Every structure is written in C-alpha cells, then in structure tokens.
Known about the structure:
The chain is globular and about 60 Å long. 68% of the residues lie in helices and 2% in strands. 42% of the residues are buried. Helix 8 (177-200) crosses helix 9 (209-220). The protein has one domain. By secondary structure, it is mostly helical. The protein has a two-stranded antiparallel sheet.
Amino acid sequence: MKKITLIKGDRLLWIAFVVLSVISLIAVFSASGLTANTHASTPMRFFFKHLLFVVAAYIAATVVSHMNYRFFAKATPWILAAVLAILLVTAFSSTRWISLPIIGRFQPSEIAKILTVAFTAKQLAVERNHIDRPEVFNRIFIPMLLVAFVVLKDNFSMGALIFITCFTLMYFGGINRQRWIRLLLISLLFVGGALAFFATHPDIEWGRSMTWVNRIVTWMNPDPDVLSQENIAKMAVARGGLTGQGVGSTVHARLMTEAHNDFIFAIIIEETGAIAAMAIFAIYSFIFLRCIAIARRTKGRFGSMLVLGLALLIYYQALVNMFVAVGALPVTGQTLPLISYGGTAYLCMGLTMGMIQSVASDTALSETLKNRPQNPTPKPLAETAEPAEPIQP
C-alpha cells in the first residue's frame, strides 16, 4: 500500500515557515492593542482572527505542495487574465479592496504579484531557445509591465515590487544584458520623472500620486516633532536596543494604528532587540538561499525560474518592510511576509510557500529515483533456489 505523506517538499523550509508563524502570532497579539480598540475589539479577538488566517495559509500551502507544479504553467495565464480584469475594475473604483465572505477585504494585487511572477517564469522557460530576440523580450516584458502599471495607480510599492521582482528574474532567465540594462535605466528615469512632475504639479493627481510624493518628501525631510507612524517606529527601534524590553512590554504599539501590520518589525525590535531582528533577517536569508539551492537542482526550466522568482518576491518584500521600519526607506505599506497580521497577504504567502514546496517535492522525487540502485540481473533459478527436500516414498 502506498504511503501517504502529508508534508511534502523541503523540510527546512517548512521549519522556517513554522518559526516565522510562531513569531507572527506573538508579535500580532502584542502589537494590536490600539487597532483592536479602534475597531471595538480586543487583542485576543485579533489574535484568534489572525490564527485562523495562519491555519488557512498552512492548509493552502499543504494542498498546493501536493500539486504538480507544471499545472501552474498551464493555469497561470488564464487566472492572471481574470485577476487583471478585476484589477482594472478596482482601478476605476474608490477602493483597492473587494469584500468577500469570511475572508473580508481581499486585495487582488496580492494574488496578481504571485501570478505575474509565475507567468514570467513560464515565458522564460518556453522562450529559452529564442531568448535574445527582441520580440521574445517584448512577449515577456509587456505583460509584466501591464500588470505592474495597473497596480501602480493605487499601490505604488506593490507595482514597483512586481516590476523589480520580474525584471530581476528576467536577468537571471538569460535576457540580453545590454537590452536589460537600457530598459532598467529608462524605467528609473521614467519613475523619477513622474515623481518630479507630480511633486511640482500638485493640482494634477493620478491615483495616489500625491501620497507617494508626500511620503518621499517626509522621508527626505523628517520632522521629529510630528507624532507620525514613521517617527514612532524609530522611537520603538531606539527603545529596543540590543536585547529589547521584553515580549509584551511595547509602549509604542499603543500609539500606532499599523503596529501589527506595516510596522510590526519595529515593535519586534522594541520588545526583543536588535539580536532578534538579525535572527529574523537570517531566517529570510536562509529561505532565499534554500530556494536558490532548490532552483539549481530542479531539472525543469519552469520549476527553476518559478522558485527563484517567488524567492525574490519574498526576500524583496521582507527587505522593504524592514528598511521602512528602521527609517531607511519611505513608508510603502508592504507587510512583513509570514509575520504581519493576516488576511489576503498572509494567505497569498501560504500559496507562495506551497508552490515552492511543490517544485521542491518534485525535485526530491526525481533525485530519489535517480539515485535508487538498479535491480541486479537475476541469477538463474538453479543457482539461487534452495536444494529441494527429498520426496518421501
């Protein structure tokens, strides 16, 4: 009878997932005081709601890890097209969210970023033999740019994250280096020019353009006397020091509406110190390096590109959130993967981990079959059979 294995894939990645989830549960419970009061709730209710999302993320990761990752290459274009249609609808509405039963507010851009990475990985795999042709470059670049641009209107940081992740993946996918560098410079000039234009023309607004400009201006010219989220986060980091004030001893989380979400890393530093912060950074770095190892072992081109792209997505998002928390970047609104308060973002990270584990599981199975010793040539029956008992008369 064939043995059914519940946990498939790379065990070390599962352990890292569990560790980040435990950190998440503790940190969210500790940091959600003000937000809970604002929503006429309690930190305990917030904790159990987050726990449900964590459990749902584990279920999603487990289910997806049992799927054949090649299915994602077939399904991704169709699902991405549907999500893009939803994004276009929300782009012309007053909200970036869609209200769903049980889940609550669902942000389509969260699932769009995963699907865009998967689509880019598929195109890099399909076009690998013609990767240097300009038309091939366009078939990979234009769909990615379209999704990033639609998301960019209402969520600059998410659109930028999609673009940077997929653009980096294209570099490792073998795209012509000179063309890649030229397009990178053009993109940087375009973004810089757009921000400068909106900064000098405040009467002209596109999406949340003034929000982007104000965040950058505030970051470049901070006012320490303003009790803003950014300044409170900096005070929390300073109070944490090397070893922290102790779990549950946060003061600054009581003053921040996004302490359990965008600025949760600052609260973790306040309570557990810079040592714990470096440990969290080390876990994300381990996940990234482990995914690179899986991508190198994977025979299929799509699987290799998929794991690398999703690893870049997790790592970039984690770095952005941590840099914002310590004041090294302007506020972006990006959550800390697998740690910030649950919802669409946490569920999508569960799906991301499941897709990585699906490739890891297939790779491990292939290596097992490859290393399995071949059955030796059976000896003649006369040489292997035991001597027969004499027949009694």
